[in-house]
Design brief:
Blueprint: H1 4-16, E1 21-25, E2 28-31, H2 37-49, H3 58-74, H4 80-83, H5 87-95, H6 99-110, H7 114-132, H8 137-143, H9 149-160, H10 164-170
Antiparallel strand pairs: 1-2
C-alpha cells in the first residue's frame, strides 16, 4: 500500500470479508489473529483485483517497510530531526538493522539500489509538483531537500530523459502512479 486511499480500500475489503483487524496503515495490516488459509486466499484475490498483494514472508515485509520509509523520506514527510540524517543512518535506526545488510538485501530483491529507489521516488514527487504548477523549480528543489536546482535538474534529466521545464510543458502523461514505481 502506498497511499491513504489504499488503506481505505484494504479496510473495506477486510470488513467485507469479516476479518477482524486492529489497524491498517500504509504497508501493514495488524490482525487480531492469524488468517485461515481460505481467508488468506480470498484476501489475496481481493487485493490483487485492486493492484495490491499480500506479503506474508518476513523478507518481503522488511523490504516493504524499507520502501515505505524511503518513500516518506523522498517526499520529505519525516520529522524535522530526521530530514538531514544520512539515509543509511535513518534506515538503520528505523529498521534496527545494519545498513550494509539491508542494502544488499534490498538490491537482491528489488534489482536496484536503495539510492536509485530514493532518486526515483524524489523525481516522481518533483514531477507531481511540476504538473500542479504551483511551485517554482527552486521551491521544488528546496522542498525535496536537493542541494541546488542544478542537482535536481541533473537527476531529473538523467532519470526521465527530459528537463524539468520540458516535462512541465508536456504534463501529466509522463506521471507514474506510485504503485507502478
Amino acid at each position: 500500500m502506498v497511499c491513504d486511499r489504499c488503506v481505505l480500500y484494504v479496510e473495506s475489503i477486510l470488513k467485507q470479508l469479516s476479518i477482524p483487524f486492529q489497524k491498517v496503515q500504509v504497508g501493514e495490516i495488524h490482525l487480531h489473529e492469524d488468517l485461515l488459509e481460505t481467508q488468506k486466499q480470498l484476501l489475496q484475490q481481493r487485493l490483487q483485483a485492486i493492484g495490491l498483494e499480500l506479503i506474508d514472508n518476513r523478507l518481503n515485509q522488511l523490504i516493504e517497510k524499507a520502501k515505505t520509509l524511503i518513500l516518506a523520506r523522498a517526499r520529505n514527510e519525516v520529522p524535522e530531526q530526521e530530514k538531514h540524517q544520512k539515509l543509511s543512518v535513518y534506515l538503520s535506526e528505523r529498521l534496527h538493522l545494519d545498513y550494509f545488510y539491508l542494502s544488499t538485501l534490498f538490491s537482491s530483491v528489488e534489482g536496484r539500489t536503495i539510492e536509485n529507489y530514493l532518486i526515483e521516488q524524489r523525481i516522481e514527487k518533483a514531477k507531481e509538483l511540476l504538473v500542479y504548477g504551483e511551485l517554482s523549480l527552486s521551491e521544488i528543489a528546496y522542498q525535496l531537500d536537493y542541494s541546488s536546482v542544478a542537482h535536481l535538474s541533473g537527476q531529473f534529466k538523467k532519470t526521465t530523459g527530459l528537463t524539468p521545464s520540458h516535462f512541465k510543458q508536456i504534463g501529466t502523461n509522463k506521471l507514474k502512479s506510485l504503485d507502478k514505481i
